[in-house]
Amino acid sequence: MDWEQYESDELLSERAAEIFLAAIRDNPRVVLGLPTGRSPVGMYRRIVRECAREYHCFRNVTTFNLDEYVGVSPDHPASYHTYMQHHLFDHVDVQPECVHIPHGDAKDPAAEALRYEREIVEAGGLGLTFLGLGRNGHIGFNEPGSPFDARTRVVELTPSTRKANAEFFPEGNVPTHAITMGIGTILESQAIVLLVAGEGKHDAIGRLRSGTLDESFPASALWKHRNVKVLASSFA
Ligand code: GLP
């Protein structure tokens, strides 16, 4: 695991955007795994600045988001569909058919998770996946206790995760479940970049750095992978 420490979230975002853009330049047909949350916002802002539609950076890129809330329709203001449109997809020339995000409002969320996993395989697997880090160590929505070989599936959110995301659901109905890529799915990505920004991540960083593999701390599974870069800001 390769660690890079940054003095600010801005510097971290700059570096993350550089890695992202280099991956597209190296392979214009790259398959990307994409995160949501607060940590990647600055990265997306920089990518949009460099890659406005006219530059055609995303013409052949395929994307798979990590997760989506169950019971939340794509046009809900707090859906990850809305987040991605707002922060990235509305501003670049990605082909709509190459964008993949689990459908949180699917009639049968378990079947939707299986379909999503199949789509990743059909696309040839993930090339480069960016992740954020939950304060409890979750990656995607793989909460503590998630098996390291788990595939894309429906999961129950912990009370602390629901609390951390409550501000996005001002009407109070914070989802109880999500569809997330599994840790096993994520670990099959050829390369992984973990973004650790924002406050309250200090303990999580300490646990990750310890290198102990433990299913009660999902991000520790990343030690099993041979190509992981961690970008952490000093405020983490
Ligand atoms: C959310 C997302 C994760 C994200 C994490 C950290 O609940 N499902 O994919 O990485 O929590 O979020 P943040 O970057 O806002 O700290």
In short:
30% of the residues lie in helices and 18% in strands. The chain is built from seven helices and ten strands.
Helix-strand layout with pairing:
Blueprint: E1 2-6, H1 9-26, E2 31-34, H2 41-50, E3 62-65, E4 67-69, H3 80-87, E5 99-100, H4 109-122, E6 128-132, E7 153-156, H5 159-164, E8 177-180, H6 183-187, E9 191-196, H7 202-210, E10 228-233
Parallel strand pairs: 1-10, 2-3, 2-6, 3-5, 6-9, 9-10
Antiparallel strand pairs: 4-8, 7-8
Helix pairs in contact: 1-2
Bound molecules: 2-amino-2-deoxy-6-O-phosphono-alpha-D-glucopyranose (GLP).
The site of 2-amino-2-deoxy-6-O-phosphono-alpha-D-glucopyranose has 14 residues, from loops.
Strand content: 15-25%
Strand order of the largest sheet: 1-10-9-6-2-3-5
Ligands bound, unique: 2-amino-2-deoxy-6-O-phosphono-alpha-D-glucopyranose
Helix count?
A: 7
What does the largest sheet look like?
7 strands, parallel
Explain this structure.
The strands form 2 sheets. A 7-stranded parallel sheet has the order 1-10-9-6-2-3-5, with helices on both faces. Strands 4-8-7 form a 3-stranded antiparallel sheet, with helices on one face. The protein contains 7 helices and 10 strands. Helices cover 30% and strands 18% of the residues. Helix 2 (41-50) links the parallel strand 2 and strand 3. It starts with a strand and ends with a strand. The protein is globular, with a radius of gyration of 16 Å. With 236 residues, it is α/β, with parallel strands linked by helices. The longest helix has 18 residues, at 9-26. The chain has helices spanning 9-26, 41-50, 80-87, 109-122, 159-164, 183-187, 202-210; strands spanning 2-6, 31-34, 62-65, 67-69, 99-100, 128-132, 153-156, 177-180, 191-196, 228-233. The site of 2-amino-2-deoxy-6-O-phosphono-alpha-D-glucopyranose has 14 residues, from loops.
